[in-house]
């Protein structure tokens, strides 16, 4: 395809003001204060560790932010091929005026100091949002988050439910749940009651989605009260459950959440396929991987049982994308959602985007979310996506199918913004 | 690659007269009579339904063809990105002189009326075949099809065996079998006898293939008479079988069919990987999906046991293509067959074609079949394939390996026509 | 991307002197003596057989090398599309001055004779190495190889352990082991002792790696002496083990090897995913295939237990590449290793290379190995890889990310040579 065509479309896509539909932003500290906030992102620590830096060196307790950055810089040369490092360079160039080709021993201190000065400006958070054309940002809130002290119109709450579904067996989870809802979980009915209170609290505070990440071997299914009651009672009595019993409780809680999503008209974001702590000696947040032997057929019963719930679905393994395309092609309530984690690299984004744009109705695709922990990452990550998207629109639609440029750009706008507004009910 | 080179090769491929080796054409009503025949294709109804249109709206009993088209047009805007909709536009442009960019509320009635007039022409079927350069069309015939009243030289019978293998447990299947063969199935021997009669009937009427679609969890294996006899006897006595027992019967029937394919020298088309009725509330023919966790290793014993039977193999999930390439690379009796259903979109056709052209002997590849229900679809579907194929031939062979254009085009001819002739014994 | 850019980078990559980190070269007869040595490579015999030539025709005992070549030439026309045949043409052009477009009935005898003359030159082996810019070549040695009579600086030993892990149950394996080590295997301790002797022997003779190919259903795990002792005792007593018992022995031997890799600081090459003898009627070495339903999660415990052992990993199925990229991204001891067998075709090399270059630290990628049986194959196989790599570097790095050409070329050098030196400790 012609490079100019792609570049023109890319520039148009760059001008779109965004709503980021999934992040891990802390609304009380949304922007970074030092380069350590940015380079402490697990992508850098885990890649530096993978390339040879000992975890103890990276995560030594008590080192200053500047010391931490200095140490990580020692390892960057091994990562300079990665797309993740290109995000870091993009951030430093866009926000801190960095002009080098690489961040290295010779220039990092100057960069550290100048960036710190920049981030100390009072309106830094607003500057980042404005420069990134970022209007609203979805959060990932613990179920017991009070949702207070921030602007829920800008930072949109989202009820994250991993702990409820997969860790109700822990006393700490049940204690947090009791503290948040006043309900002491002792049987199935009390779990339902507590979940209802959480949904009520979240929806009253502007939540627009419920979300969960799920291991490859989980298959949602309804569970009768009679089956689950004795298990929850044993939990409440301090027992530990066997693995299959714990899975039954997980299925019960999961199904309960889906019922509340239906009642409260909340989309239920499913992030399918992660195995936690596969590498327990890894750095913080750098321990999870996956087993590609997972199928959306495991969600067959769920999709059929909740026709009124929209399920925006992310898959961790790239080999799951074809199933996702096909399930979104058939099920009205299945929506493709972004490019998650290990699939979030241009090679796979390109393949997955091409297939989705070709075979999934255009109103059922959420193009991208940043998954960021700090605001500065939205810009380079969305830019990466927009670059790929511009190439697909230019090649497959304008050149391949004779679409006008403006028609292709409108399609891009829908993927980047329009569908987010409609599916989650924000605007 | 140069656009002109690809275009020249594409035009040469477009000039090839086709034999379509797999369709669902009804030879008694091969062409469409209204736009509803075309837009009623499950690709459109299921995508419109997936994009938000209620099934009841699409499938309301008693609505006229024109009303049905009018309703579907309401939903087309959400699908205008899909490759399936591009087929529809291609049909309307090529056959009905349509000139719009989209089919919408403002133009569909005129299109409906003009197309109806065109389709009412007495030689419409011949016109479509001629304009599509389509010479012969393989059918998909129920096992009890009398195969009468049509030209079996143009419309080539193919014995479809899903019902026999997977639904012999239904009384209705056994009744149909008795009616077709005169044999009342009561034990293994009678099943073999009945199957033999079917093969005899089909081959006498020009059948060139046996075919079946298979769920992901099926593994063919021989079954002894001693094992299956009591099961079939129980079926005949009105019993229901347990799932594993029914699977044993399926394996027995399947193996019996393979033996007759060997005896009658019929290729056995295997379409591997479909789960039926995953979404039972979906529209007609829009309910099936798949589980990608299937492997051709499940067919190891079959491929070894029947060296004289050619198995043209289609896989439903794109992630099965590499296995297919590798098994066709090793097994003399395994042939790659087209791009099936959920894999039948340019992104995947391109990847799969590139790998097949690089690693499977050229005489063991059937490039494409349309899978159409109405004749008008051959043109846009084969055109989509030919466009992709032209790109692969231009990029990987002419530019990448220095082949002459004519050599690349000859290769394309073999994939599109020559291998179909030789493998199925038609010409 | 611009064709000139890619070509310039390709030429630079072509000039790199190689160390080939995995081959099946016989150091006592490294180069070919007739075209039959080259065309007898299983890629040609199995493809010719797959395309229709009977095995008996190809492998008839007693036929002369020339007769064998003549027979294979009859079948080449069906394979002329395959990338494997392009290697053959490359060899004939580069080494024997062949100028035809195809090898056929009209020219093969002249080619045979002229090539034989060439290969008879006294320094043919050196000529091939020099012309291929090949400096060192890793071998694949049986565990009982005396490693004598060749230059272990040029031909680097590698301890291949399939027989030990998967065939210790055969009396012949235990006899070979006894002959090689003087130890009669009778219990777990003697197995450990014997393995230690093998490592000692190999390392003293310059071995730089331990290697094994593994079926898809194998999961490494530690096994206690108490568990395995009775099993090995029964083996020594002449018993046959049940499948699950044999798997326990395999796990024990495998884990023992990993422990010695740790002690002797040898990388442990894992080639994951092959099913042996799937097509037992196939030609020699043309009988193996795979089941894509394998996951690197099966190696979780191994990777955690041996942080000091580097595991260069090859995967047989292309759908395993994303897991490999992700595991190499997280685990410091997991390294991506080349493009193996059924994945070793440009379509898949391109996809896999793009994803690895984007997401795996650059010091953890071994770009390519030839897997060759005769020296003449290094040139065309590495050239194929370098062509793909040049395209990825030109497109994704120079054009996509604004890298200078020299920076991209340095990256390519590291993938092709630098990492091989460092990871295996050769230079
Ligand atoms: Zn997240
Ligand atoms: Zn079909
Ligand atoms: Zn090898």
Automatic annotation (TrEMBL), chains A, B, C:
One Pfam family from the record? UxaC
Question: What GO annotations for molecular function exist for this entry?
Answer: glucuronate isomerase activity
GO:BP terms for this protein?
glucuronate catabolic process
Q: Does the keyword Isomerase apply?
A: yes
Entry's SUPFAM superfamilies?
Answer: Metallo-dependent hydrolases
Return the EC number.
5.3.1.12
Does the keyword Isomerase feature in the UniProt annotation? yes
Keyword annotations of the record: Isomerase
Query: InterPro entries from the xrefs?
Result: Metal_Hydrolase (IPR032466), Uronate_isomerase (IPR003766)
Q: What Gene3D superfamilies is this protein classified in?
A: Metal-dependent hydrolases, uronate isomerase, domain 2, chain A
Q: What protein does this entry describe?
A: Uronate isomerase
Source organism lineage? Bacteria, Pseudomonadati, Planctomycetota, Planctomycetia, Planctomycetales
């Amino acid at each position: 395809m012609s490079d100019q065509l792609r570049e023109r479309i890319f520039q148009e896509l760059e001008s779109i003001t965004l709503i980021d539909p999934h992040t891990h932003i802390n609304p009380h500290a949304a922007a970074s204060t030092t380069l350590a906030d940015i380079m402490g992102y697990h992508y850098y620590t885990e890649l530096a560790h993978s390339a040879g830096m000992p975890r103890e060196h990276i995560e030594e307790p008590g080192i200053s932010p500047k010391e931490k950055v200095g140490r990580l810089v020692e390892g960057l040369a091994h990562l300079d091929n990665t797309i993740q490092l290109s995000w870091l360079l993009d951030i430093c160039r866009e926000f801190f005026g960095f002009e080098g080709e690489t961040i290295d021993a010779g220039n990092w201190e100057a960069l550290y100091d100048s960036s710190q000065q920049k981030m100390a400006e009072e309106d830094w958070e607003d500057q980042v949002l404005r420069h990134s054309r970022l209007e609203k940002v979805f959060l990932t809130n613990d179920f017991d988050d009070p949702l207070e002290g921030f602007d829920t119109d800008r930072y949109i709450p989202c009820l994250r439910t991993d702990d409820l579904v997969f860790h109700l067996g822990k006393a700490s989870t049940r204690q947090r749940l009791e503290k948040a809802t006043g309900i002491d979980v002792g049987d199935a009915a009390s779990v339902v009651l507590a979940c209802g209170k959480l949904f009520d609290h979240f929806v009253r505070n502007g939540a627009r989605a419920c979300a969960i990440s799920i291991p490859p071997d989980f298959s949602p299914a309804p569970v009768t009260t009679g089956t689950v009651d004795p298990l929850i009672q044993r939990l409440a009595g301090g027992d530990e459950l066997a693995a299959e019993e714990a899975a039954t409780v997980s299925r019960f809680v999961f199904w309960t959440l889906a019922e509340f999503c239906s009642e409260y008209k909340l989309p239920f974001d499913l992030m399918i396929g992660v195995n936690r702590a596969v590498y327990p000696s890894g750095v913080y947040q750098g321990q999870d991987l996956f087993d590609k032997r997972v199928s959306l057929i495991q969600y067959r019963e769920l999709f059929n049982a909740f026709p009124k719930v929209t399920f925006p679905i992310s898959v961790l393994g790239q080999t799951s994308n074809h199933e996702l395309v096909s399930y979104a092609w058939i099920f009205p309530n299945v929506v493709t959602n972004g490019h998650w984690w290990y699939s979030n690299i241009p090679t796979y984004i390109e393949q997955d985007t091409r297939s989705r744009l070709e075979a999934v109705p255009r109103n059922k695709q959420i193009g991208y979310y940043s998954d960021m922990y700090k605001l500065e990452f939205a810009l380079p990550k969305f830019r990466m996506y927009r670059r790929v998207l511009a190439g697909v629109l230019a090649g497959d639609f304008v050149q391949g199918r004779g679409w006008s440029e403006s028609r292709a750009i409108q399609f891009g706008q829908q993927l980047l913004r329009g569908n987010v507004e409609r599916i989650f009910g924000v605007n």
